[in-house]
Design goal:
InterPro entries: DUF397. This protein is α+β, with helices and mostly antiparallel strands. The chain has one helix and four strands.
Length: 65
């Protein structure tokens, strides 16, 4: 998948972590996720419903330590 024209976004809160954050891109029916420090390393592309389920789990605290 060609991601060269994708518009990547990261949370404004990432400024407090020296810019180390994940970036996401809206890819029509998919969502791209990549490391903001090494974007040239590639991205994971997942279906929108899968990414939405992941975000719901994060918000619910499923991955809290």
């Amino acid at each position: 998948m060609d991601l060269s024209q994708a518009q990547w976004f990261k949370a404004s809160a990432s400024a407090s972590s020296n810019g180390a954050c994940v970036e996401v891109a809206d890819l029509d029916a998919s969502t791209g996720v990549r490391d903001s420090v090494t974007p040239e390393a590639g991205a994971h592309v997942v279906a929108r419903p899968v990414f939405a389920a992941f975000l719901a789990d994060v918000k619910a605290g499923r991955y809290d330590r």
